[in-house]
Amino acid sequence: MRLSQMLFVTLREDPAEAEIPSHKLLLRAGYIRRVASGVYAYLPLMWRVLQKVSQIVREEMNAAGAQECLLSQLQPSELWKESGRWDTYTKAEGIMFSLVDRQEREMGLGPTHEEVITAIARDMVRSYRQLPLNLYQIQTKFRDEIRPRFGLMRGREFIMKDAYSFDADETGMKETYQKMNQAYHNILRRSGLAFRAVDADSGAIGGSGSQEFMVLADAGEDEILYTDDGKYAANVEKAVSLPADAEPSPFKTYEQRETPGTETIEKLCQFLNCSPTNVVKNVLYQATYDTGMTVLLLVSIRGDQDVNEVKLQNELVKLAGQYGGKTVIALTVPDQTAQEKWAARPLPLGYMAPNLSDDYIKPAKPAPVGVKAAGSVVPKFLRLVDKTAVELKNFATGADEAGYHVVGANWGKEFQLPELVVDVRKATAGDRAIHDPNQTLQSARGIEIGHIFQLGTEYSISMGATYTNEQGEEAPLVMGCYGVGVSRLAQSAVEQSHDKDGIIWSVAIAPYQAIVVIPNINAAEQVQAAEALYTELNQAGIETLLDDRNERAGVKFKDADLIGIPYRIVTGKALKNGKVEVVNRATHESQELAIADVVLHLKRAIVDASMPQP
Ligand code: ATP
Ligand code: MG
Description:
The chain is α+β, with helices and mostly antiparallel strands. Helix content is 26%, strand content 27%. The strands form 8 sheets. Strands 3, 7, 8, 9, 10, 11, 12, 21 and 24 form a 9-stranded mixed beta sheet that branches. A 5-stranded mixed beta sheet has the order 16-14-15-17-20. The mean pLDDT is 94. The structure holds adenosine-5'-triphosphate (ATP) and magnesium ion.
């Protein structure tokens, strides 16, 4: 491709709309263009990168035995009602774009395809002889993200590869999962990315396991905890660890003490001269179930620990049945305004006890007979205690009165131990690892580019997708699902690999592998040599650009660096010796090569660069 004929517009300045380097660079280098919030046009260079990534994904999926298909983006609401996700996706979480067609039928734009694929499997898979089956597609997904940001990282329209597997049983599903796990490692390695596979939260659906593939980058939205021995890595949402031991309590007898101005654990410990591990703190949360029911929670946890809200959410979803619902749609720490809606009187914030009285909650208004009280508040605190707090003896905690705490308290004496004992503590860097207490957890930031998931029979049971097994019995299909953010992966590569001059693509996913630059298009010998090399390189299968624009050499070099093409060939001064300059974008190394040697040299360099790294 000749730059003179291409839609090629680069910007000198960083665009104001972008915060992180990869987003700035993709905009500046003319790869993408914003159309609306979270909606981007992939310009010709970007489209080539996306096709390269897609091809790697495709090859690895095929190698793992998956078959490519293309499902519909428009999805009928009926299917989502069968799985029970229509209301959660369109109303509660509101992540699905939905519409009503002119026949008054409700439709959604696919944010994911479990429903569609399960309906197809239900109709087409009859016998165990058709199993295992693994189908994938590479397609645009739509999600009305609350905070679309960072360009392609969190878009409202983005490209995903999603695969869905169907097996006869749990064992088969796990084998498929392992194959996909390997395929995901291969995809990331081949794309030239530094990454980690980590244990991930699989939500309350349970499922026997899930892993996320994290591209390591400071701008990542996720925190990863891992050990140096390579034996443990998890998303902080899921991570487990050993908490530090609690220090012996300095309190011997139970008493109430005046503790003015100690609404934080730090101030309290200073005042009482004790360790945060001697304190039981009581954290207030407000959860809303999909039925509209609001539940107020009091979580008691050791003073030095924090609540992991993902773990807490999972515990709450397990209780959804009690509130007539299926899931939790919001979990927050209620602020002043939220508290005013349900509190009968101001709460002793900072001084709450595990037995905070239920009459802080306004009594429920009786609903008219026959009317289901929607949007109502359960007039009793749901009390949970984290394991770290259960073991404490002679602890300090709030006295339910502003300015007062109690010390020397014990479960079973002054306070009743809440019935719900849970593990909701947040693991943090520096904690000891469970598999080996000599290892401490380290922290890194990552961008989730893939998620593989042992789904089990959740969808096949709710949607009635069964098959006849070898014994002639009807059994639900056992499913797995596997996603890769293709467009997110492409941008992550830039986030991980760039310098002050621009993008540094790996050869595997660069839009072009080489660019021939003519420093001065008025010099006939430069043009001639460049044209010849351009043709020869492309014929040799090296995807090459030709910068034949009527621009200054400096501008062209800057642009070549900005767009990040791995090799730049300059038909400049060295021509008089029959040579050209070849510059490596990543290292800035430059060498003069005889014109006749360029093709072979680049072919070798490209093969070397594509070799899997150890
Ligand atoms: P996240 O936690 O980042 O929102 P998710 O858990 O919703 O991701 P999945 O539903 O598992 O993601 O989707 C599979 C993959 O699709 C993700 O691993 C990610 O790479 C990509 N992806 C998800 N949401 C977006 C988005 N809004 N923009 C770009 N890529 C996305
Ligand atoms: Mg998401």
